Amino acid sequence: MKRLRQFAWALLALAYLVALAPDFFSLYPAREQHRDYPYAAPGRYGEARLVLLARAEPYRLLGVIPASLHLLAVRGSGGMFPLGTDEFGRDVYSRLCHGASTSLLLAPAAVLFSLALALALGGLAGYAGGWTDAVIMRAGEVFLSLPWFYFVVALRAALPLNLSPRATLLMIFVLLGALGWAAPARLFRGLVLSLRTREYVLASRALGASPLGVFTRHVLPALLPTARAQLLLTLPTYIITEVSLSFLGLGVVEPTPTWGNLLTPLQQYVVLTAYPWMLAPAFAVIGIFLALHTVAEGRGTAGQAGL
Fold this sequence. Notes:
MetI-like fold, mainly alpha, two-stranded antiparallel ribbon
């Protein structure tokens, strides 16, 4: 089990390296079309060959640093398509790398935003008690009662569909973060209710420490292991929500690639049956899900035991 968890961590590390530097790992720009090779099967075409650590199309590493070095570059006529091409002749492997930047980086950002809200509101409810606790918990019950995936879909469908990719990303980030705080907030509230009666917390209050100082110095550090476990446990849900929205045409749309809109052509039965390499993003999502669940398996118990 330990080796499996180490493999899962390695897979996640590789996936997030690709997400942070997609241009370095990809063979072609995400929007480059090879009109002579629509729906080309995986393989080498013409006299194309791969060159290791070569300079090719310039890009900006992390969106800031000018660079042109690629892990692999294609030389010669024809094309090299490890995972085939789509209907426009765009390299699926390269678009998969670029799509990771959206699908794998947007979800953790939304989870962190959601957990920050949960820590603040759940901690406040548990530590303050009284009417503050009642108001926050009743608001949380409202959010928990919502079928939040369908609520996100309905709310997104009600907004203009021609939003820019940046505006769409910001909107999905805010929606996911704002709707996902209620469940972890209830967990943090319960933990704070237990922690605030511990002897070291009572001693700190008796010595005159402010409520904010007691919370940040003694209560919050004890919540962080559980927060880390919650991050790993809820991240798959956020990823699949973004992928589903993009697959349905309600998330980030073309030409910006995400793992969701890369799967959109599979809505056509002929594509699903005749071009199986178009399923590559689905296998990537499954791999990330399995890796996240593997590394989170022991974290949930560890986070609770740490208290």
